[in-house]
Design brief:
4 strands, rod-shaped
């Protein structure tokens, strides 16, 4: 058995305290966790119980950080995971938080993708959107789910972007070719780009 020899408030965060066991610093925990578990000086406690208390405290602390992070703006599952790992939380605590956030619908990669698509669809084609979402850790299934639930006219968006790109320029073969390549580079499909360029030629 071990013995708690001191519990002191942290100077920079009065909601947390330092726990000393057998005369040595053991860990920092929240005051709430200390009170909940009735920790006090001279209390004898085994290592298993100490570990369970620390695990409980880490999960609670990590979840509070995660809630604060997602409350500022919608995030993907991987963004939350990377954020918590950067903060130094264990894998177990991180996955506990992710499961809780998904349970409360604070993490929804399909919904995140829908909002992202709606915000960039006028300037980015499907291929580029898919690439950027996947780089944020979103699975293909969630991206497909989002596209199915989003009404986007990619052909008209490609056309509008082509008009903008050609503004104040002569409609020459060279400028048409540059605009074609520009739209492909923005992730629009060949069908969308062909439609956009054909529409411009017919209006010329």
């Amino acid at each position: 058995m071990s013995k708690i020899t001191a519990i002191t408030l942290q100077e920079k965060n009065k909601k947390r305290c330092n726990l000393f066991v057998d005369g040595e610093f053991f860990a920092g925990i929240s005051v709430e966790t200390a009170l909940k578990n009735r920790l006090k000086v001279d209390l004898e406690i085994d290592q298993k119980s100490l570990k369970e208390i620390l695990d409980e405290d880490e999960r609670a602390y990590a979840l509070a950080k995660a809630f604060d992070y997602v409350s500022k703006a919608i995030k993907t599952k991987r963004q939350v995971k990377d954020y918590l790992l950067r903060k130094g939380f264990s894998e177990d605590a991180v996955w506990f938080c992710i499961d809780k956030l998904k349970e409360y619908s604070y993490i929804d990669d399909c919904e995140y993708s829908k909002r992202y698509i709606e915000s960039v669809s006028k300037t980015q084609g499907k291929r580029l959107v898919e690439y950027k979402l996947m780089s944020k850790g979103v699975r293909k299934e969630d991206i497909s789910c989002a596209f199915e639930q989003t009404e986007i006219d990619s052909k008209e968006n490609a056309k509008a972007l082509a008009v903008k790109h050609l503004k104040n320029k002569e409609i020459t073969k060279e400028n048409i070719a540059k605009t074609y390549r520009y739209l492909i580079g923005r992730g629009f499909s060949y069908d969308d780009v062909d439609y956009a360029m054909s529409s411009l030629k017919s209006e010329d």
